[in-house]
């Protein structure tokens, strides 16, 4: 991978695991993503700035189209998490994940994730994060993959630890929570061997 233009980097649009299909955004998914967000709004509100008010289906479709464009431009690599059908195809939309804060020169990426309320506690997030991490190292030649979360987000912390990420430190008052109050951020990482 010698190109310096991220648009020319081949990024898998789909990752298949034992139970999941992790797929790049597609135009026309506004209604499905809207249903998952609206079902989970109360659980997402404390952590996700974009989940403070229930979006309309039209707003959700606009988000999907913007995510699709950013994926093509390699400026943000959002994926949706689907239950895998018996035929190996994407089934019910379960949530989202992705590689964010991309630094293509360093090959540093940050993983984010969320899961709809009815799919919590079944290991789907850890399965998706493990697959995305493996893809980042194998396909994108990542040198560093991070997971960051609010210090009080115990569920997110458990995912990072379950997926083999190492706690690096606490960034004190480095960002604001959804209500504008300074918060501490936990930083976890996995790095490629030298």
From TrEMBL:
The keyword Transferase applies. PROSITE patterns: GNAT (PS51186). Gene3D superfamilies: 3.40.630.30. Keywords: Transferase. GO terms for cellular component: cytoplasm. GO terms for molecular function: protein N-terminal-serine acetyltransferase activity; protein-N-terminal-alanine acetyltransferase activity. Transmembrane segments: none annotated. It comes from the Bacteria. InterPro entries: Acyl_CoA_acyltransferase, GNAT_dom, Ribosomal_N-acetyltransferase. SUPFAM superfamilies: Acyl-CoA N-acyltransferases (Nat) (SSF55729). Residues 31-188 form the N-acetyltransferase domain. PANTHER family: ACETYLTRANSFERASE, RIBOSOMAL-PROTEIN-SERINE ACETYLTRANSFERASE. This is RimJ/RimL family protein N-acetyltransferase. It comes from Roseateles toxinivorans.
